[in-house]
Amino acid sequence: MIIEDLVRTGRYLREGGLPPEQLLLLISDVNSSQVRNFFQHIFVVELSPNGDGDAKSLAMQVWGQEIQPDRAKKKTVFQPDLGKAVAAPFVFPGGNPIHPQGVYGVPAFPVFEKHLSAFINSAKSVADFLRGRLARCQSIKLDDSTVDLIATSLHHEVVKSNPLRSSKPLGLVLLVDASTESSPYQYVSDETERTIGHSLFLDNKFISPRSDIVLELYSKSKVEEGRQSGTRTGCCTICGGESDAGMVSIYCKSWPWFLPTWTCPIPHGGKGDIAEGVALDEPCYEALNIGASYFDKVTSPVDSIVTRELFSPVSDREGRRTIEHKSIGDLTTIYGSALLLPILEFAEINPEERREFGEGLRYRLNRNESSLNHITQVLGFEAAIPIDVEEEIYRLTLVYYSGDASRGDIHLRCIIEDVVPTVVHKLQQLARSTARNIPNLCREVMPGCSEKQQVWHANRFQYIPFLLARAYGGAFVWDQLQSVFRRVPLNIDRPTANIAHRISSLTRNFPNTQYDVREEVLFYLAFLDFVQTYNDTIAEGDLPPMAMRDWKDLLVVVTESPPEEMAFESATELGFACGAVVRQFSRQYWNVTKTGSEGKDYLRHRIIAFGSDLSPDAVWKKALPTMFNVELKLRDLRLADDFKRRIGVLLNRCDDAQEEIRSSRDGFMAAFWSGYSLQKTNKVKQDEQPVALGAIE
User: Fold this and answer.
1) Spatial contact of 600 and 580, defined as CB atoms under 8 Å apart
2) I need a surface site. Which of 26, 159, 414, 565 has the fewest CB within 10 A?
3) What is the C-alpha separation between 676 and 126, in angstroms, rounded?
4) Is the bond preceding residue 511 a cis peptide, omega within 30 degrees?
5) Which of 525, 471, 476, 530 is nearest to 501 (CA)?
6) Where is 373: in which H helix or E strand?
């Protein structure tokens, strides 16, 4: 259950040495880009430390500065001073933000343009604003006379500063009471980066937050929000503990996946009924708030390279081209998140290890941290885990979803639990190895491929979800992704069929589509190598047979072995040999039919009828025997005896294996185009044997 993982994560973060300031940044919205402009206009009202009901407004403050994110552009954004911002934690109000929302931990109230306009018009508008919010803030109690005094003082300060002149008329009102030891604010003698103003009541004193108390009050306010959505007696659903205060519903603004307004397909019930299903005690609820906030912070969109593959038709190359030309904004955004937890229960781990593990989780919030192992290539979204957690005692839970989380509109794509970090590490090495091999394979398969194109292909091939989506199709990618994390052997049948169908959709316009065919061959050969390495080094259990041997070994068999000794282990390998031989002949045919600088393509001119496909029967019943007929008709075309014998051997092998070829049509054709695409550039004289294969044309 995701809720349980969130609670466990929150407990480790709370136990693991996260200072109050960082916890406040985590569980509130002060570090969100959505609220940064509120800190451009800060109105701090200091209550008298004598408790006599007096109050004074400090001059308007600006907590932050304008920065220029991109030096090439003049546009600036406001960057809040987070050291000060944690003194006034709040959540961006949902629903109608003009009205009071939820429960306030400390009296820090965001104000919008409509509020500021009303504040300038009258002190009564300020008082009405404050009363509505103070009724939802349990950490401070003020009588009506004090509220009116605050309203008058704040009214004058807003009129004086007039934040409406700003292009972003947003602000924050903060009421400061530092009169007792339990107050969330205190007086200090020295001004620091964290102080939020000079006291107007005490000379040479500055106001500073007590972050631990601010955190405590803010956390209790979140519990109260859950309590307002339902309580019950009994045991906590997660830890089994009991409390005289009763169990609290899991309604939590930090976890909007569970909303009381949800009605379809199964309603959660009214607000008061939520607790009847799942309810938590206060420690678990506070941990849920932390864990859910953490989940949001480590969630990233799936890379656009993977997203395009997920929504591309798997068997139609032209349909895929349509998706490639679409803006990524037109495709559904899929998000991914990874939770890392130990197998042992919280109580079974000693406090020191809990603290160290909590620190490791904390590092994941800073994605530039040097102690992190980035596993983006394996998961498909930006993610990292501490380097020292590759032991078998830890597990990852991966969550993929789409939709608008802020509205509870969640479409859960996949949850993969109990992922062993060592498996992730091995898959990461495999992904990097696959990407490193791509430039060399590009040079072999795609003549004239530039370095830029090689890098472009290698960048795509480094993502395991990309490989699985393109091979198996978006409908199967989640099952296959789960398989690789479970070390289940991969079968090549479906990917081979998909690749063969994509090539088939291109051959009708061959050779104009030759580049696209070679690109499909590039993927086929790279994926075969990926699957072979994965099955040999990571997978466990009975391994399915591979489609064919390594293409370099097959080229040696086709070109260097004596014709009568050519041995093939499957119909797929036979298809590869046919493709290699047809390509050798096609090169000579192009040369002898050349008029000017252009010759005729053998397959298009002699074998593939207009608008038709190339089938296995067409290969061994037409493409191979027609070579002898063409030699008789074209006097400038002479085939070496060794080459003729190879054609004859292949014809006999195909005749003997015709039933196997028909049952393995997709494998035969995918391999045919692979052999066809792998050729050298060496030029030969017409009276010489065709060149050996093994490099690009």
Assistant:
1) no
2) 565
3) 79
4) yes
5) 471
6) strand 372-374
Determine if residue 285 is left, alpha or beta; phi over 0 gives left, psi from -120 to 50 gives alpha, anything else beta.
alpha
**Hey, CA dihedral for 613, 618, 620, 623, is it positive or negative?**
negative
Residue 456: both structure tokens together? 């472009």
Amino acid at 386: P
- Alpha-carbon gap, residue 195 to 180, rounded angstroms: 18
Query: What pLDDT shows up at residue 610?
Result: 62
Measured CA to CA, the distance from residue 116 to residue 155 in angstroms comes to 9
Closest CA to 487 of 433, 541, 421: 541
What contacts 340, CB < 8 A, 6 or more positions away? 360, 361, 364, 385, 386, 389, 394, 395, 396, 421
Dihedral angle at the C-alpha atoms of 387, 388, 392, 394, nearest 10 degrees? -80
Q: Hey, what long-range contacts does 68-73 have (CB within 8 A, 24 or more apart)?
A: none
How confident is the model at residue 262, as a pLDDT? 52
Joined tokens for residue 486: 């479970």
Encoded tokens for 14: 């709370």
Segments of the chain with pLDDT less than 70: 17, 259-276, 367-369, 389-391, 610-611, 679-697
Q: What is the largest CA-CA distance in the chain?
A: 115
pLDDT for res 696: 26
pLDDT, tens digit (0-9, with 9 covering 90-100), for 451-495? 999 999 999 999 999 999 999 999 999 999 999 999 999 999 999
User: Which residue type is seen at 120?
Assistant: I
Residue 25 tokens read as 């940044």
Q: Which amino acid is at 43?
A: F
Burial tier of 633 (Cβ tally within 10 Å: 0-12, 13-18, 19+): exposed
